[in-house]
């Protein structure tokens, strides 16, 4: 188990759970697949049958031990490699699909806006596959996200610049031509973060890759602007903005309290009106009795 707070959690297609903690430890956990659970269920039912047979045979004073059960144990090893880089890396991401010939690994630099692309199976740090230097980033790139369905890579830097590109050499590491429905980046809303003086610090694609969501923070300003943006990937247009600042929740809470006070006041007024109506009815009844007595 981890000894510090778990900061990262990732589930792979090979049934591995990878967790990382604040003290720098990374752990690999093998998850139980459905097939493994079925095997275990079969074994447990078989053992129950053997126990029933054993108890039944014991009554007849004929004890028969169960026969041996064949179990196949498969061990999966995670290949690892260590490479010494000439720069200090900031973030990395795999930017290839399952059918791609190369397992492309993108690594950003902490002190520059460059992104180095390597072959992950044969990591040769001296000769990278490509160096992304003309994307337009002005600061270090801290986010690199890849989507298999659209074969698109989205990178974000600390200055709020967001860029589309491809990890394939066949596309010359540029935007896939069949994906985007805009001719120029000026036709999109990808400059919205620069206008708002914010930058995305978290970005995730939808399963089909047609929508991506990102959370933003302010750039070196004391005012906090936390917003959740939903983007149309193909058009680069904003679909929805959710304001996650504390002021919004305070305003909502104030409105809720005001509404509750108004409901309480209206309820008290209605109650007072009902009491007045009851008193008027009693007075009318008493006056009618007096008139009849006369």
From TrEMBL:
PROSITE patterns from the entry? WD_REPEATS_2
Q: What does the record list as coiled-coil region(s)?
A: none
Supply the alphabetized keyword list: WD repeat
InterPro entries linked: WD40/YVTN_repeat-like_dom_sf, WD40_repeat_dom_sf, WD40_rpt
Q: From what organism does this protein derive?
A: Didymodactylos carnosus
Q: What is this protein called?
A: Uncharacterized protein
Identify the stretches annotated as WD repeats.
1-39
Where in the sequence does UniProt note compositional bias of the Acidic residues kind? Answer: 273-285
Q: Where is this region: Disordered?
A: 263-294
């Amino acid at each position: 188990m981890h000894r510090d707070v778990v900061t990262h959690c990732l589930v792979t297609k090979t049934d591995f759970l990878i967790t990382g903690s604040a003290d720098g430890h990374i752990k690999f956990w093998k998850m139980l697949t459905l097939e493994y659970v079925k095997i275990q269920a079969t074994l447990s039912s078989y053992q129950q049958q053997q126990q029933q047979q054993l108890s039944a045979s014991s009554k007849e004073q004929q004890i028969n031990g169960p026969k041996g059960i064949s179990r196949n144990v498969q061990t999966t090893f995670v290949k690892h490699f260590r490479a010494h880089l000439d720069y200090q890396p900031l973030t990395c991401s795999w930017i290839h699909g399952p059918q791609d010939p190369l397992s492309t690994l993108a690594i950003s630099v902490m002190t520059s806006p460059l992104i180095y692309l390597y072959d992950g199976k044969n990591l040769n740090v001296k000769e990278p596959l490509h160096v992304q230097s003309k994307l337009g980033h002005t600061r270090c790139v801290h986010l690199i996200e890849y989507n298999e369905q659209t074969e698109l890579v989205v990178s974000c830097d600390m200055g709020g610049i967001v860029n589309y590109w491809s990890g394939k050499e066949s596309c010359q590491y540029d935007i896939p031509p069949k994906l985007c429905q805009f001719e120029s980046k000026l036709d999109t809303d990808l400059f919205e973060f620069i206008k708002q003086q914010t930058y995305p610090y978290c970005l995730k694609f939808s399963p089909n890759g047609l929508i991506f969501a990102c959370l933003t923070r302010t750039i070196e300003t004391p005012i906090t602007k936390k917003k959740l943006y939903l983007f149309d990937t193909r058009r680069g247009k904003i679909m929805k903005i959710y304001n996650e600042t504390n002021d919004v929740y305070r305003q909502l809470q104030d409105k809720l309290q005001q509404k509750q006070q108004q409901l309480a006041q209206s309820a008290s007024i209605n109650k007072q009106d009902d009491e007045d109506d009851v008193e008027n009815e009693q007075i009318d009844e008493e006056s009618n009795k007096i008139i009849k007595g006369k």
